[in-house]
Design a protein that fits this description.
alpha/beta, binds pyridoxal-5'-phosphate
Length: 382
Amino acid sequence: MHNPIEIPFYVPWITRDDRKATVNALKSRWLTGGPQAKKFEELFADYVGAKHAVAVNSCTAALHLSMRALKIRSGDEIIVPDLTFAATANAPLFCGAKPVFADIDEKTFNISPNDVLERITPRTKAIIPVHYGGQPCNMKEILEIAEDHKLFVVEDCAHSLGSTYDGQQMGTFGIMGCFSFYPTKIITTLEGGMVTTDDEKICKRLRLLREHGMNRTALERESSTTWFYDVVDLGYNYRLPEALAALGIAQLKRINEGIKRRIRAASYYTKQLSKYAEVITPYTAGNRSHIFHLYTIRIQKNPRGATRNHVFKRLLDSGIQSSVHYTPLHLMSFYKQFLDQKSHNFPVAEKIYDEILSLPLYPTLLKSAMEKVTTEIRNALN
Ligand SMILES: Cc1ncc(COP(=O)(O)O)c(C=O)c1O
């Protein structure tokens, strides 16, 4: 057992307005598949700058639907970063396709375009770049590769709602963008997700697959004179309930304030931690904005023998939770079966895996808590 947690890794930011909006939605006749989800979709599309947004009940569902919308199937290969959450790689697997892991860039921890090129085969159908921690990938190079090899790009924007590349929001570069509203994310609906797209046909297909493959939803049938619907494809129940959509609308209203606070907290950490030679603070490329879903540092072994694991332990002993994002997928038991000889090679992901540590960061984090975190890191390094 460790000491009681004094500074958790994450604390959700739920206000009175959020609670009011959620409870009000519970008073409605529509509890799911209704007007709140529709309104949330419209506001979300507007915020991101996409033509369409389709609300779903997780980013995992969003990624799955994106693969189904592209008709990904057995025999296809989808390139994903080695350093990501399991759901990115699971989406192709849900459709019988194979995830192919690509190594990452040492500075940004994002998928390496050069390594993507190495992994392309005649079976490759798509790339799913993940904007790790809230910093956009090198979209120029990824889109060029995709165009040259006729591949789809589906952005995994689970971390990156509100971040920009050349001034344009993430989720508008690929054929689709998939977002998460899990409690630690930039906004939360408890569980929830969204797919953005500019493609009308894809949008229609996403909506169909979200609701059991039915060609007319309950909401559509209500304003019609017939009870009839047909099932025209294999679909799912991936709807976002109304109370959660209402919470999403309330959260979206103050997204910019949340991001501002995250960036302010990140600058404080960077200022304090840049003093230590063995700590590498997050790097942000010039044409990108980093919205710090994660604040991930690297801790290189120092002459006194202190390592990332020492720092993790010291923080925990002081009541501070930190975390590691992520164990590279190729090192996890389940994913080993998808590796071949060539794809065993992930030097950068393996190198940084021993060094990365994500520090507590959320909109309500106090300066005094950050002071304690940085003081304990200093103590651990000494
Ligand atoms: C990169 C990435 N993709 C996908 C997901 C899945 O999101 P959800 O929990 O909303 O299904 C996560 C969740 O943490 C994630 O970090």
